[in-house]
Write a structure and sequence with these properties.
Largest sheet: 5 strands, antiparallel
Radius of gyration: 21 Å
Strand order of the largest sheet: 14-13-12-15-16
Distance between the termini: 15 Å
Number of strands: 16
Mean pLDDT: 87
Number of helices: 9
Length: about 300
């Protein structure tokens, strides 16, 4: 059986190189055993045509190919991923990590709504624009307050407004016609410069790390913003909460960022393409988990 891992923007091109290096041996052994043949492709290498039932075609580097039995889209959600997903599903392939979940978590606003309905604790969030009164934001969320784009990733565009003046200047600088949604979010001071990234695969807790800001003045803990990490186990109740996040968003592979509060944890963000540390991915246990996830998809 054939399995494609399709890497898009935000999926990590360096990771692709490592995956492809292991694929050569992986595919050889898989072929010998008559099991799963994994192939790692860049999203840019794929094109497709649509036009009615049975008319779909998929191409890799301009060459028409048969659809795989299984596929996983890895990287930030976009319209190209939608097209690839719809084409492969129409051709009979199955998705390991359904795109419906990616649609949800690509929007921080939609994620907040889904988690709210499920009763999952999270930082309070509201939509803001150039006409929003800063006093209203402060009355609802306090100061400091975090502002960020609804569709951002890897800490990009995330800012901390520590004064009313700074918040007012930020709002005034927003364009009158926004291309996307801007959010203001409650700042959890007890989690300043640190959070816990939890990895859930096949709706089960697998691994967790603490991410710590690289500089004392930095409030973001993202690795892309210079943060460091350390292994950080969490209690069973929090594991169950993260598994619930996975189920209500529909993601079978996700990274959940937890903020540390005085009364436990709350969800900060949910990621459909979480960077995974070598301490986890280099283990036989990780390879077993991923293989089981893929094989279970065939049974669905």
């Amino acid at each position: 059986m054939k399995y494609w891992v399709i890497i898009g923007e935000g999926g990590g091109y360096e990771e692709v190189k490592k995956l492809r290096a292991t694929d050569q041996n992986k595919e050889k052994s898989a072929g010998e055993q008559g099991e799963l043949e994994r192939r790692v492709l860049l999203q840019d290498e794929i094109s497709f045509t649509q036009g009615g039932k049975g008319k779909q075609k998929i191409f890799v580097n301009g060459k028409e190919e048969e659809a795989p039995d299984l596929f996983m889209l890895w990287g930030h959600y976009n319209e190209m991923q939608e097209g690839i997903n719809d084409t492969l599903l129409a051709m009979g392939a199955k998705s390991v990590n359904p795109i419906e979940g990616k649609r949800i978590v690509c929007s921080k606003l939609k994620t907040a709504s889904v988690l709210d309905r499920a009763g999952i604790p999270q930082a309070r969030t509201m939509i803001v624009g150039p006409g929003t009164n800063p006093d209203f934001i402060i009355s609802e969320l306090g100061l400091p307050v975090v502002v960020k784009p609804s569709d951002g990733a890897q800490g990009q565009g995330v800012l901390l407004m520590e004064t009313k003046e700074a918040l007012s200047e930020f709002l005034a600088a927003l364009p009158q016609k926004l291309n996307g949604v801007t959010l203001a979010q409650q700042f959890i001071s007890t989690s300043r410069g640190r959070d816990v990234r939890v990895y859930v695969i096949d709706h089960k807790y697998r691994f967790s790390i603490m991410r710590i800001a690289g500089r004392p003045e930095e409030f973001r803990s993202n690795i892309h913003a210079g943060g460091r990490l350390e292994v950080y186990p969490i209690d069973e109740k929090t594991q169950e909460m993260c598994e619930k996040v996975s189920r209500v968003t529909g993601l079978r592979v996700c990274g959940i960022d937890l903020l540390l509060t005085e009364n436990g944890y709350m969800v900060g963000e949910v990621n459909c393409t979480p960077g995974m540390p070598d301490e986890f991915t280099s283990t036989d246990e990780f390879r077993r988990i991923m293989k089981n996830l893929v094989m279970d998809t065939l049974k669905d």
